[in-house]
Specification:
The protein is α/β, with parallel strands linked by helices and 288 residues long. It is built from 12 helices and 8 strands. Strands 1-2-3-4-5-6-7-8 form an 8-stranded parallel barrel, surrounded by 4 helices. Helix 4 links the parallel strand 4 and strand 5. Helix 3 runs parallel beside helix 4 and helix 10 crosses helix 11. The longest helix is centred in the last third of the chain and has 20 residues.
């Protein structure tokens, strides 16, 4: 767990109304996330609009977040693409920028075989000295990492964790019992059951807004206080529903951060658009 932390946020990438990256917005967001209890910041992942970030932008984001974070949280760089050579290059750039770890998504769109997935992940893991968290998200990638693939990849000394957005708890428990991989829940709606089944932590979109309560949820489960954990989870459900189920998590999380005053704008880059229900989010954020 010390490689990545426990209460990780899938950070949005603050932008100006024209779409340029916002350094003032980034400073405000990092300050907010550290103050509310995040011990890991995932930069340039899906929620950070990775498909629209250029390589210089992605590396610059990591440098800026590292400079603003110091030793207060781990900085995990999202570097995965469907191009192995590009992913290796991004991994090396993230290492040079000061990242503490890498988030490596299963190659998407091209839908390689499991042998191709393994070769891709090993090539990236061999490219730097940083610990790697695999990101298993079949809904976005078009393919899943099978249990046998995860077990094989776990033998690599730098592949140490999985962000599981597959939602198969039985499979997750099976891989956990057969490897030393630290599992992180990548589906906010399932944070409590994953933690109760042995996950090391969460990589949360909702934590952009509620990292303090996510920290409380993790702590309650670790203490074995499931009654308190359920109460926290129940209280989070309406906001989780609004952020994760009323539109892309990127757009709704940015809208919620704008309502909190953390970000001045909720700008996203195309093909995403701002089409969220701001009044509903405003009410939920105000009552959180």
């Amino acid at each position: 767990m010390t490689d990545f932390g426990a209460n990780l946020v899938a950070m949005v990438t603050p932008m100006e109304p024209g779409g340029a990256l916002s350094e003032p917005g980034l400073a405000s967001l990092v300050e907010h996330l550290l103050a509310t209890g995040c011990d890991g910041l995932v930069v340039g992942g899906t929620t950070g609009e990775s498909p629209t970030l250029t390589e210089p932008e992605a590396a610059g984001l990591v440098r800026s977040v590292v400079a603003r974070t110091g030793n207060l949280a781990r900085v995990i760089a999202g570097i995965g693409t469907y191009d192995t050579a590009a992913s290796v290059r991004r991994a090396r750039e993230a290492e040079a920028a000061g990242a503490d770890g890498l988030l490596l998504v299963c190659p998407y769109y091209s839908r390689p075989t499991q042998a191709g997935v393994i070769a891709h992940c090993l090539a990236v893991a061999d490219a730097t000295e940083l610990p790697v968290m695999l990101y298993d998200v079949p809904a976005r990638a078009g393919i899943a990492m099978t249990p046998s693939t995860l077990i094989e990849l776990a033998a690599h000394p730098r592949i140490r964790a999985v962000k599981d957005a597959k939602g198969d708890l039985f499979e997750a428990m099976t891989v956990m019992t057969r490897t030393s991989l630290a599992y992180y829940c990548g589906i906010d709606e399932l944070n409590l059951p994953y933690l109760a089944c042995g996950a090391a932590g969460v990589v949360s979109v909702v934590a952009n807004v509620t990292a303090d309560r996510t920290a409380g949820l993790i702590d309650a489960v670790r203490r074995g206080d499931l009654e308190s954990a359920r109460k926290i989870n129940d209280a989070l459900l309406p906001l989780t529903d609004a952020i994760m189920r009323s539109g892309p998590g990127v757009t709704t999380a940015k809208a919620a951060l704008a309502e909190l005053g953390v970000l001045p704008h909720a700008t996203v880059r195309l093909p995403l658009v701002e089409g969220h229900d701001r009044p509903a989010i405003r009410q939920l954020v105000g009552s959180r």
